[in-house]
Predict the 3D structure of the following.
Amino acid sequence: MVKVTVKFFAVGRDITGSDELMLELPEGTTAGEVLIQVKQRYPAFEKVAALLVAVNLDYADTATVLYDGDELAVIPPVSGG
Amino acid sequence: MKIFIPTPLRQYAGGHESVAVEAATVGGALDQLVAAYPAMKKNLYNETDELRSFINIYKGDEDIRYLQNLATPLAENDELTIVPSIAGGAGTANMTGSVAEAAEVSLSNDEVRRYSRHLIMPEFGMEGQKKLKQASVLMIGAGGLGSPLGMYLAAAGIGKIGIVDYDVVDESNLQRQLLHRTADIGKPKSASAKATINSLNPNVEVETYNVPLTSDNALQILSGYDVIADGTDNFPTRYLVNDACVMLRKPNVYGSIFRFEGQVSVFYADSENKYGIKGACYRCLYPEPPPPGLVPSCAEGGVLGVLPGIIGTMQAIETIKLIAGIGEPLINRLLLFDALKMKFRELKLRKNPHCAVCSEHPSVTTLIDYEAFCGMPAHDHIADAALTSSQTQIQTQPSTPMSMQPTNQANGEITVQQLKSRMDAGEDLFIIDVREPNEYQIVKLGGTTLIPLNTVPDNLSKIPKDREVIVHCKMGGRSAKAIEFLKSQGYTNLKNLTGGINAYATEIDKTMPTY
Ligand SMILES: [Zn+2]
């Protein structure tokens, strides 16, 4: 198993009610699979079509495999000015 | 090894794109280049034989300033690239344009005194200041972000500032939009911003565009400026500005805010930009907009007044760096700021090779209908319907079945006048207020029960089925949704207060505030 921290930002914090989530995942889990879990837990995320994901502060795509101690940031767009 | 010569300097190097040299250091390589092409000397070195401040030399992808400068050693297959910075002036090619232009303007004695704190910094100097004077920056939006941006750019001595904004100053803007003063309420923001900038620095030429930025006018307006700074307040305009910047090959200094959080980046997708970095654009990050109503605007979700001060100021710094050609721009980096945690994080970005607009084979090659693309209007003027749909998402209990779809159906309605006369008649009414507790603290009707929209499903026991239930919110949108939900739970005697508490405050009790 690997331990991964999922960080939420902006409207993601409203949806989840928190700014991070610790997950224990089977080896080889991808960022995309974590997103699916997050969406199952918080269905409102389903509607956020565009989510920027970063693993350890580096741009990532859904195929990125997560390792123990990784941080997955889920960043929805914001529009205010 | 090879030295790559940028387009504007090729005329001084026999028209060559690259020149082969043999040398052990960067300095030695440049000496050979100058020996072969003497006209290069004045472009590379100043009177005291130092490398000009607007000339950057990269070994591979590293600036020699961060290596050992001219003493940086070279190996057999190293590649050097000469990268002149922006020279200002109009036209689309100016970011890669002629270095010689920087010498064409001069500073008056007044200007020398005004900008002396810039001039005494060797990294900036007269050359940097002249570049600011020659440069033009277009601000999209004269609001929260545009305020510090416009004021610092003006103070810094940018030659020309364009302001696109067709909004008028509202009282609720003054908490953060420092370009506007109390006396400006009701005036066009573009005019108010121009007046503030002119009084701050009369040397700055200000051009105002008191119109919505649209697919019809964007290319024409943007093409007259060197740098575009996006401080707009809505998604359609953000996508429009991004796409227009990519098409015009202009840098887009991006800032965006949400309550206590902000984002800053520089989107500079031009493959021939002077930094030699293939920059991501906004669509590389967010290929699709969020669904309408999901992400609240400032008008809907609120914003800490100082936050745009931080983010807009960082946009001003990035703009000045791009123009003066100093430092490392925020290209391919997204800076996230969290005011509550007082934390910055930086994400590395990458150009999306399949980006719809900035990839090699883009599918979007002309400006489109961005309001249709985003499914929302290109402004953040408050509409309670949008507010309610955004707040419906705020659920922390996913197991609760919520089928609150927005509706425009005029179900049982009650006007504020009807409510008032029934209250005056001493009727025993059951009224629920479905706003948030912080809104309840701003202003409330007497004798109501507060049950925020998201908590309605958990509080059905508090809502009687056997009598009339009047539901209200701020403007009537959220209460309509609550009523839809209550109907699905078997409630039949429901009334929505038309226009919400804001209507009550404007039409019945003018001592009550609106917000
Ligand atoms: Zn792109």
